[in-house]
């Protein structure tokens, strides 16, 4: 056992009596003075009163006949103790250095992995929102048509015909109407007049053409297609002739150009910055903010409303349905079963997709059901609604009950009239810090 141990303040403790001192000379004096006073029995004659002076080591019990030899012996004990403590300190220092190196390596690996994951997530978002420099509408249209030709699903002559039509459409900035279906609202009016016995009342928007995604915008063009639907309704409404004079439904690259022009006017600088002030030549998604910005730049009065959290059980949004019912039913009370309102359709946005609300049903059980045009629905399905006797199964694809809308958040853009030049300037100024109305 070591004769002494070093405390945190370098004190030396005697292992015999526990006394602590601050230095080796003090410890040596203590051992020789205090503990040498003990009576010693002579190992030679076994008498305690032997005249031979004897000295025993207070640490290990060794008996010496010479005081100086004992002193050197005790010094050796102290040196051994100090050496062991020094080695312990060296080992502790090495262990600490190794632990620090291991921690630094672990931190470096963690930062590297976090950086890699962040880059992957950033690239994923770039691909998802069309900002990865992979080309825009034109490039995707040509690429997908080439795939169709290679798979034998499109004749080369058809490819060249469609390419020529696309290039003409892009040159004049007008949609080629190849994904357009007209006459659906009129067909719905006939259907509700003659059938739908489980519906108490239905409100329909003004006339709307349906547009669906094509080879050029599949996977990212829903916002643009819904804008085309909304604009198709406004173009057929005399109340908007002044601000839309001479317009036709634009093609998607033209819509991108129009939004860029609105940004250049000073609308929504934050939104423009998020999309690098550029849409043309990209597959960038647009949402409610861009639709509001574009409509406002055209002097169309509209509101953007954010249903930012659920207002019903199981993540539903009954307040959204109530607001839309109020929007369409505000004009006439006590009206007939089918009400053709003067209200344009509503742009509806949620995470990853957008649709166009063209009406709302009040069922006989007092529940509400939206009527929705989805740009993901192809023309062949929408055209089934145009049959003389529209079937309930065809209308079913348009219906969205409260239980069908369970996304965390919904935003709508609702058109309310025309802006004066002064009102447009005021709204442009207000868009410097863009805020939507929130419900609740």
TrEMBL record:
> Does this entry carry the keyword Acetylation?
yes
SMART domains on file? ZnF_C2H2
Q: Does the keyword Transmembrane apply?
A: no
Q: Which Gene3D superfamilies does the UniProt record give?
A: 3.90.70.130
E.C. designation(s) = 3.4.19.12
A Pfam family hit: zf-met
Name of the protein: Zinc finger-containing ubiquitin peptidase 1
């Amino acid at each position: 056992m070591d004769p002494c141990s070093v405390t945190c303040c370098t004190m030396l403790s005697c292992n015999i009596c526990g006394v602590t001192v601050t230095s080796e000379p003090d410890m040596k004096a203590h051992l020789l003075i205090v503990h040498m006073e003990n009576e010693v029995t002579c190992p030679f004659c076994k008498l305690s009163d032997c005249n031979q002076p004897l000295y025993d080591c207070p640490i290990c019990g060794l008996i010496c006949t010479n005081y100086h030899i004992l002193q050197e012996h005790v010094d050796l004990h102290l040196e051994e103790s100090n050496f062991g403590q020094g080695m312990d300190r060296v080992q502790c220092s090495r262990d600490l250095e190794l632990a620090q190196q291991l921690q630094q390596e672990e931190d470096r690996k963690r930062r590297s992995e976090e950086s890699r994951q962040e880059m992957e997530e950033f690239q994923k978002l770039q691909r998802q929102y069309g900002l990865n420099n992979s080309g825009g509408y034109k490039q995707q249209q040509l690429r997908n048509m080439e795939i169709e030709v290679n798979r034998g699903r499109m004749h080369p002559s058809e490819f060249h015909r469609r390419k020529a039509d696309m290039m003409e459409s892009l040159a004049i900035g007008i949609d080629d109407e190849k994904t357009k279906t007209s006459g659906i609202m009129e067909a719905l009016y006939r259907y509700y007049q003659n059938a739908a016995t489980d519906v108490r009342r239905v409100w329909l928007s003004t006339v709307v053409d349906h547009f669906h995604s094509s080879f050029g915008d599949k996977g990212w063009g829903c916002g643009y297609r819904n804008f085309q639907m909304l604009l198709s309704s406004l173009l057929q409404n005399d109340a908007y002739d002044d601000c839309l004079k001479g317009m036709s439904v634009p093609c998607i690259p033209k819509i991108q150009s129009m939004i860029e022009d609105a940004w250049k006017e000073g609308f929504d600088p934050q939104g423009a910055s998020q999309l690098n002030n550029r849409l043309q030549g990209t597959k960038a998604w647009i949402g409610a903010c861009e639709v509001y910005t574009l409509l406002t730049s055209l002097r169309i009065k509209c509101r953007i409303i954010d249903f930012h959290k659920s207002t019903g059980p199981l993540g539903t949004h009954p307040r959204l349905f109530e607001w839309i019912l109020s929007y369409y039913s505000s004009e006439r009370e006590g009206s007939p079963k089918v009400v053709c309102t003067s209200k344009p359709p509503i742009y509806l946005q949620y995470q990853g997709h957008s649709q166009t609300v063209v009406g709302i049903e009040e069922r006989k059980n007092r529940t509400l059901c939206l009527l929705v045009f989805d740009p993901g629905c192809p023309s062949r399905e929408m055209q089934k609604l145009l049959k003389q006797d529209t079937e309930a199964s065809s209308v079913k694809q348009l219906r969205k009950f409260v239980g069908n809308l369970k996304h965390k958040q919904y935003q709508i853009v609702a058109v309310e009239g025309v802006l004066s030049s002064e009102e447009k300037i005021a709204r442009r100024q207000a868009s410097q810090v863009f805020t939507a109305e929130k419900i609740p």
